[in-house]
TrEMBL record:
It holds the Pfam family Lar_N. PANTHER family: LAR_N DOMAIN-CONTAINING PROTEIN, LARA-LIKE N-TERMINAL DOMAIN-CONTAINING PROTEIN. This is LarA-like N-terminal domain-containing protein. GO terms for molecular function: lactate racemase activity. It comes from the Bacteria. Residues 29-185 form the LarA-like N-terminal domain.
Amino acid sequence: MNSTSVQTMSSEQVREWIVRNVSAADYRDKRVLLIVPDATRTAPLPLLFEALVDHLRPVVKKVDFLIALGTHPPMTETQICTLFGLSSEERTHRYGDVGIFNHEWDSEGQLSEIGVLTEEQTHQISDGLISMEVPVQINKRIHDYDCLTVVGPVFPHEVVGFSGGNKYFFPGISGPKLLNFFHWLGALITNVGIIGIKGTPVRKVVNIAAEMIPIERKCLTFVVAPDASLYGMFYGTPEEAWEQAADLSAQVHIIRKPKPYKQVLSCAPPMYDELWVAGKCMYKLEPVVEDGGELIIYAPHMHEISITHGHLIEEIGYHVRDYFTNQWDQFKHLPWGVIAHSTHVRGGGAYENGVEKPRVKLTLATGLSPHVCEKINVGYRDPATIDVESFANREDEGVLLVRKAGEQLYRLEE
């Protein structure tokens, strides 16, 4: 099955589905916190926000929203209104009783430690790759509520296999320590070894951590088309709903190709406004680039490496995994999540006798300067020299154009 053979739901069908399947009795007289994605994920949040608030507000004591930023920058009030499809008047009056909060991952005072992954657990989960004790921290706001409900999409994901479900707690609203641990675990296994696979060690970490949350957990998850319409919705525990959504995502979000390409133009949508998230344009397409081929991330609108982590990435650059593992003492003091991002974006390759050999040539055609690209160890191309349409309909020549990259995974046919 592929996405073209699956019907999407109308707005009215989405509203009806929520009324029919999200039991109001589950929430009666409870304080409810709904955990949602930020603007770096395709999702019909304005529709879901209105439908869920209309459905739950008559029965709950309180309904609020927490934006699962992970380590992304906090959203401004204007950005929040855009994300939820609200005018400033609606935000103040129609929904004045609904709180909307940014997650504060880097503020120790806003985090609560709810448990610890033991050294024995991490050793077992990682099959001996990492053995260490990891504190499990989460946004302390959760303690003000009776029920936490994840509302978010599921896609193939480079760190955990498929996104969604309990990933909205960890790293969505968690502290950096657990995030750094399992992002590096994912990097050690590699993007190609994890992406689009359901049962991964990182998913196991996320689920074990979620079991430590001392508050009821529910999940409304969905599988989304490029235009933000929905292929399907699922409700239940985060584990149950995610299982079903991941199965559907595997059907509609994975595109099989018969042979690898010598050149791929991977176009980043406007929602990827920094390389920290535009890296998905590499993760999702690396499997179909031939050895020695080139992947171009085309994003003229992008002028930042990362608002949060850019200074560290400029310090270490983008490198293959073994560049770091073979010189671990030089890098282990840095945030492991940043190192993981570096190697995920750079992709597969080798580092032997001081020589780095990436499998794929990575070129940025963005708002980043030639100097910055050289500094971070990637190729540069002036985006003004690229005519996107000249890459179209050339698959027979070994050239692939992906107009909205980052959410659909490309794989070779088995």
